[in-house]
């Protein structure tokens, strides 16, 4: 500090570098200490898969996209933007999230991508909620 006050800049500032280096090491140790093994390892594949699906569906715009795809009889190309009060890049991001979770499928047709629901994923969700429904109907409370 005294060098800067006297308008003399030090040639090397090892103190700050070492301090930053120690700080980064402490942060890394802190993160590794608490995060350790992935929490996903403690759950079944089915539980992790369902969590991915529910996370992808946890936005109202994505629910609206799924509902729209359910309401049409075929795959749709570019119509989704007209159905939602969102900008095209925002809709594209939501479609990407749904596609990454394999809730929807996208096929390239010409210059556009046509989207439809993935029947395998819908069957998985149907099975999951069917099990819950069956349990609720057979249990008394």
From TrEMBL:
InterPro entries: ArsR-like_HTH, HTH_ArsR_DNA-bd_dom, HTH_MetalResp_TranReg, WH-like_DNA-bd_sf, WH_DNA-bd_sf. Residues 42-137 form the HTH arsR-type domain. It holds the Pfam family HTH_5. Gene3D superfamilies: Winged helix-like DNA-binding domain superfamily/Winged helix DNA-binding domain. The keyword Transcription applies. PROSITE patterns: HTH_ARSR_2 (PS50987). SUPFAM superfamilies: Winged helix' DNA-binding domain (SSF46785). Keywords: DNA-binding, Membrane, Transcription, Transcription regulation, Transmembrane, Transmembrane helix. The chain crosses the membrane at residues 12-30. PANTHER family: REGULATORY PROTEIN ARSR, TRANSCRIPTIONAL REGULATOR, ARSR FAMILY. This is Transcriptional regulator. The lineage of its organism: Bacteria, Pseudomonadati, Bacteroidota, Flavobacteriia, Flavobacteriales.
């Amino acid at each position: 500090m005294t060098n800067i006050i006297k308008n003399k800049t030090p040639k090397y500032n090892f103190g700050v570098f070492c301090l930053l280096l120690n700080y980064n090491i402490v942060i890394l140790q802190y993160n590794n200490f608490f995060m350790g093994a992935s929490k996903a390892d403690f759950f079944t594949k089915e539980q992790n898969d369902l969590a991915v699906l529910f996370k992808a569906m946890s936005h109202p715009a994505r629910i609206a996209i799924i509902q729209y795809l359910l309401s049409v009889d075929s795959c749709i190309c570019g119509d989704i933007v007209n159905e939602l009060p969102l900008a095209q890049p925002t809709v594209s991001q939501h479609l990407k999230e749904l596609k990454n979770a394999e809730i929807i499928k996208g096929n390239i047709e010409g210059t556009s991508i046509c989207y439809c629901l993935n029947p395998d994923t819908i069957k998985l969700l149907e099975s999951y909620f069917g099990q819950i429904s069956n349990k609720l109907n057979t249990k008394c409370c």
